[in-house]
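Summary for the steering committee. The consortium agreed at its last meeting that each partner would contribute one worked example illustrating the joint modelling workflow. Our contribution is presented below. We chose a case with several input lines so that the handling of multiple components could be demonstrated. No manual editing was applied between input and output; the record is shown as generated.
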Amino acid sequence: MCTVAQLTDIMKLARSLVLVLLCLLAGLTASAASDFPQALSGLAEKSFKKRLGAINAVAVSGHERAQTVLEALAQRRLFVANPGKRLVIKTEAGGYQMAVTGEPAGEIAKPALKRVKTNNRLRKVIRNALGTLTLRSPDPARRLAAAQTIFASRDASALPILEVALAAETDIQVRTVMERARAASTLMGSAGEADKLEAISTIRQMGNQDAIALLSAFGDRAKGAEKAAASQAIAEIERTLALWSGAQNVIYGLSLGSVLLLAAIGLAITFGVMGVINMAHGEMVMLGAYVTFAVQEVLRTSFPGLFDWSLLFAIPLAFLVSGCVGVALERGVIRFLYGRPLETLLATWGVSLILQQAVRTIFGPNNREVGNPSWMSGSFELGQLALTWNRLYIILFALLIFAGLYAAMRWTSFGLQMRSVVQNRQMAGAMGIRTKWIDALTFGLGSGIAGIAGVAISQIDNVSPNLGQSYIIDSFMVVVFGGVGNLWGTLVGAMTLGVANKFLEPYAGAVLAKIFVLVFIILFIQKRPRGLFALKGRGIEA
Amino acid sequence: MIVRLLSRSLDHWSYGFLAVLVLVSIILPALHLLVPPGSYFHVSGYAIGLMGKYLCFALLALSVDLIWGFCGILSLGHGAFFALGGYAMGMYLMRQIGSRGVYGHPELPDFMVFLNWQELPWFWLGFDSFAYAAVMIVAVPGALAFVFGWFAFRSRVTGVYLSIITQALTYALMLAFFRNDMGFGGNNGLTDFKDILGFSLQAPGTRAALFSASALALGLGFVVCRLITRSRAGKVLEAIRDAESRVRFLGYRVERYKLAVFVISACLAGIAGALYVPQVGIINPGEFSPANSIEIVIAVAVGGRGTLFGPIVGAVLVNFAKTWFTGALPELWLFALGGLFIAVTLFLPRGIVGLVQSYWPRLPAAGVANRAAKPSTEGSTR
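What follows is the complete predicted structure of the assembly.
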């Protein structure tokens, strides 16, 4: 394997060397300086073919004036001044300069001027020629752009200049793109079969949609082994692309799942531990989002330097605000309704309406702008995966919250008391645990976590009084699907639903995917009424 | 036999209620049609439409009460059956527009022409006939309730789980109906109706007739509910509400009773929706929104569940309050509604009818409303 690759590399190098030598020879016999005026004079020719050749010659000459002249030609500012067939460029100021040297050409009478005409085909050639010219620009970014232009144009005539540029190129990234451009030009030109096969393998390594487009365009014209190689390469690229898009879907799904997890995990505690249906849970999330908004407003006006740290202030504050509202809700309403889950549901729905309207009255009905801190904005690419930082941070954040909550339930004395109350309320009370306190604190904890979720959701969603409404049904679905009273169930439930949703989306569209997931859960509950990870019990009526 | 059955089921309070309903359905339209507009006694077309709407909500509330108050099934998705009935009526009304639409297509409703559809989808066929539409108004909600209830009750999904999945059901339907390619007008729904059974919907006579029809439907719904709850099966339903497992152990097929009453309730809700649509002139996916379903549940709770008068009183009161608040103090409406939810569940568990009963014990107990208020054992995970 390795030796073959090395061998092809050596062959490529040798070929480049030969070309460079040829070019040098050409350069020696007729130096670029004298080459350029000659090529330029071809532009004044009447014959279309000669002018076409002249454009390419101007480009290949690599003269410093070449670009100016070609741009002038493209912009219809290049004229032939008689007598003497001098080529002049009309400057933007209105004067004229010599095309060859750039010196002022003095006053020229209008009748003596004749515009050098272009047509569509010539304009295309000029565009490509300009692209190839910049291949030798000292700026790597411009060289890169030029190589990409050539790749996109698949211009076979650009091949010679590409070879020259490749030989001189040192930047690895630009080199790769140039090699691809050369492969594209080779495929579209009249090279031999071996060259074309090699070009196909170069293109195959790109492995993206551009490569497929190029190969299928080539495959339409090619025959025999070349055609077979092209279609094989296309199939291979499509396979890898499918894998990448699958991976991308998983990432999107995990991202959606982590948002669901954040929204649902507080609910899992209140619903799972206390059997309380809290329809106002979504509003706790909304309160968290508005706390973020308020914190950012204060920082923006008073301490602009701290804006990047706004979330750090918002997280504990949101926990406190939502937690306090939660405790107040438990003490004020819910404790009178224990054992009457349906009434609890209605009462908490009433609370959610009041909270929504309160926020609407205070902050107004419109969406509020919550900014991303600089370290959370932007995106990056990993292979062919497009990842945004804020989604990535939210996935991490959700897992962190989950781990923290799990640890608190597992290893703190509060967690122990909480679990004992879940398992057997009377017995826990008999052992001296103040079950009512545990109820209030648990409710506060669940609501506080919802507030933290609101901080995260404010980074990716609109902050409006209706924010909670859009999450409440999804959150319930996650909890019910995962199994009540089990944090692992919530994690698995949220991630499963998130990923399933994103995998269905390409086939069914966003709305239909959501409907499918809802219908699936409705059917799933029929089969396992207590969710994926049900607590085992012997009661007839759980 | 029917007479005997009726006379056994209806007490003098029920006769009184039905008499009032008949009087209302005659007098209000008469005041609307016969008294000149300037007169003090004239009832405007707006008022007639509004009260017709209240009657439809009352019928919907009655259907919710039939399953919640008498069988302990709290459906948070009854708005779905209401909206399906409404859509069935809306489809009939759309077909009646004929070529009078904006695009003047003889066959297709405007939104289909707009979407460049060439022919009617199969599920729109037949809706040009009122008889077919009338069957569908009952059959579609009934069929959905049958399928949904079949699965849910067979696998013993009860209590809050059932409430949540009914909510998910109406939410899923809302999302589905918002889609343009569902063929139900998408976001805008069905509107611009012209006439029903050949009568213009704008004519005062038609509006008055629709009002009377709503009152009639409410009366019939009341009688049906009364027949069910006073029958032997009604006793079983109440027993299921109070102790489902015990009823099952006694040998009753609990899921069959539940399924039957759930389907009947869905049909009543569908009829309510069908009468609602021509009176408000539009049906759109917003009717599926979970908030609507919960609002009607609270109307039942306000009036007093487990009684048949309760939901009717509750629905009229809550909707009247809504009309008044959203007109006079729109900012405060949600505060008032939210407060109502909390206050009723905390302080008025038996609703207004229950409150009146406690001061005036001679009022009929209407079923076993007293027990309905007690904590049920179902779903008490605590």
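Chain B has one domain: 2-372. Residues 2-372 of chain B form one domain.
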